[in-house]
Amino acid sequence: MSTEPRVEVHETSSALATAVAGELLTRLADIQSAGRVPQISLTGGTIAEDIHRELARLSAASEVDWSKVVVWFGDERFVAPDSPDRNVGQARAAFLDAVGATQIHPMPSTADAADVDAGAAAYAATLREHGSGEFDVMMLGIGPDGHIASLFPGFPQLDVTDEVAVGVTGSPKPPPERISLTLAALNRSRSVWFLVAGSGKAPAVASALGGADVHEIPAAGVSGREETIWFLDREAASQL
Ligand SMILES: O=C1O[C@H](COP(=O)(O)O)[C@@H](O)[C@H](O)[C@H]1O
Q1: pLDDT above 70: residue 210
Q2: What is the CA(236)–ligand 1 centre distance, in A?
Q3: Which of 2, 98, 151, 234 reaches 20 to 30 Å from 194, CA-CA?
Q4: How far, in Å, CA of 81 to CA of 92, rounded?
Q5: What are the Glucosamine/galactosamine-6-phosphate isomerase domain coordinates in residue numbering (predicted)?
């Protein structure tokens, strides 16, 4: 069952990052106190960098045991393992290593798989083995074109319903080769959190919330089973 989206607007992107990091830590602590091991999925992109920095800062004062959080990725750039383009490298450097996260499942790099399709198949197998079947919190940035994860407008991967991960070639945003969760997998989340800052994304936000066609604005095709929250800064919300 999908949910009606809720919109939360913050004055600046840094206020947004602080609020999201605080909300995530509260959510993780609640799940752990209930005796479950939370499964979350991280996003790459610019807003993620700010949120990850805030997670590093705020985690010390929280009750979250990061060694008991399972960490996934919504998408990844299919490049060398030490490339600065890797979402996992950015997340590790910004906070995962510092907070003591150990159950991290990076998507394959060029050192792990022959091509993007093999990498996607390998990630699907990892999800089957270590995943709970649904994500507690799915965090998604969006591009100015409305893409989420590495699902781009007009791309055939948007129509894949029988896989949880797909390979992408010819991405309009570099680097060209990527691996992404599918809409089917993203929609298997209890909570979906869109994280969006900047006026360049205001038209895509307005279109997604206005019920655009998923082939034009992929973000329009994702919602959480229990909750969908759009965390926006004032500029990203300017066309609502
Ligand atoms: O390439 C990507 O782009 C999107 C959005 O990134 P941003 O820099 O425009 O905020 C991101 O959600 C995705 O994970 C990433 O691989």
Answers
A1: yes
A2: 15
A3: 98
A4: 12
A5: 12-230
Pairwise CA distance, residues 185 & 146, whole Å: 18
Structure tokens at 91: 């997340």
* Mean pLDDT on 14-21: 98
Mean pLDDT value across residues 183-199: 98
Ligand 1: centre distance to CA 166 (Å): 17
Q: What pLDDT, in 10s, does the model give residues 23-38?
A: 999 999 999 999 999 9
Helix, strand or coil, per DSSP, at residue 186 = helix
**Which residue's alpha carbon is nearest to atom 7 within ligand 1?**
45
Q: How much distance in Å is there from the Cα of 118 to the middle of ligand 1?
A: 22
Q: Whose CA is nearest to atom 12 of ligand 1?
A: 141
CATH 3.40.50.880, domain 10-214, yes or no: no
- Summarize the confidence of residues 130-148 as an average pLDDT: 96
Tell me the two tokens of residue 37.
Answer: 């091991």
Which of 150, 230, 232 for mutating ligand 1's site (highest number of atoms within 8 Å of CB)? 150
Q: What is the pTM of this model?
A: 0.97
ipTM exceeding the 0.90 mark: yes
Protein residues whose CB sits closer than 6 Å to any atom of ligand 1: 43-47, 74-75, 87, 141, 143, 149-150, 173
Closest residue by Cα to residue 44 from 184, 182, 140, 177: 140
Residue 1: predicted pLDDT: 54
Query: What are the boundaries of each domain within the chain?
Result: 10-214
Q: How far is CA 15 from the centre of its chain?
A: 19
Cα 173 to averaged position of ligand 1 atoms, centre (Å):
9
